[in-house]
């Protein structure tokens, strides 16, 4: 959970004037997704920690040369992907770690695994429920007290989601 | 795929010399994420955050060159 709700652009602007609190807030927001991704890819917590550390060191060092339309998310996305490949390359180049790394990484390059990247992102559960609800309410109008069948399955979260979606309140 | 092939592929990718097919393969691999069930607890996460931040601070030494201003309650405490 974030400690404050300062917009990302404001944090970047504060970073330009050497505001360490803004840097720590950025670190707080992004370190765990980055660590989790790196750990998933490299299989090594040490390597993941090192990658995250290097990314934030690089961000701090480059803070005065950030471009005008700097996107932090895009920067982190690009850096983490490049760093993961670099880390894998380094691990494979090390003779002591080559077997361990190869057994962890190579199965991920099989065709079955790579095809997962082409599939659409999984929808959240209540989005699936919404699809069911929509189809049940609008597509299959049945005579009689058909709502008794569906009303117990409706929860408050789903109704809130439907209203937010209908009135564009996200 | 063997380890040697993967070394060559990743090396070419890092140098920007990989073929389009190789680059697509590596980018697809980077885009595949597993359902991560190894969630850390809040304490572990907090410790990890402090650990990484301490390493960044040790490397850049930013608290030395850009110290944070003292909070108001510390100033009042010092006054008394």
3D structure, described in words:
The complex is a heterodimer of chains A (170) and B (80). Chain A contains nine helices and no strands. The longest helix of chain A has 23 residues, at 20-42. The model of chain A has no long low-confidence stretch (mean pLDDT 80). In chain A, helix 2 (20-42) runs antiparallel to helix 3 (45-61) and helix 4 (72-93) crosses helix 5 (98-105). By secondary structure, chain A is an all-alpha fold. Helices cover 67% and strands 0% of the residues of chain A. The A-B interface holds A 18-21, 23-24, 27-28, 31-32, 35-37, 39-41, 49, 52-53, 56-57, 60-61, 81-82, 84-86, 88-89, 92-93, 98-99, 101-102, 105-106, 108-109, 113-114, 116-118 and B 1-3, 6-7, 10-11, 13-14, 25-34, 36, 38, 40, 45, 48-49, 51-53, 55-56, 59-60, 62-63, 65-66, 68.
Helix content of chain A: 55-70%
Instruction: Give the biggest sheet of chain A.
Output: none
Mean pLDDT over the residues of chain B:
87
- How many β-strand runs of chain A? 0
Oligomer: heterodimer
Based on CA inertia axes, which overall geometry of chain B fits?
elongated
User: Stretches of chain A where pLDDT falls below 50 for ≥5 residues?
Assistant: none
Q: Which runs of chain B of at least 5 residues are low in confidence (pLDDT < 50)?
A: none
**What is the string of helix and strand elements of chain B?**
HHHHH
- Which structural class matches the secondary elements of chain A? mainly alpha
Taken as a percent bin, the fraction of beta residues of chain A is: under 5%
CA gyration radius of chain A, whole angstroms? 23 Å
What count of helical segments of chain B does DSSP give?
5
**How many β-strands of chain B, per DSSP?**
0
Distance between the termini of chain B: 71 Å
Tally of individual helices of chain A: 9
Strand content of chain B: under 5%
Query: What's the rounded overall pLDDT mean of chain A?
Result: 80
Structural class of chain B: mainly alpha
Helix content of chain B: over 70%
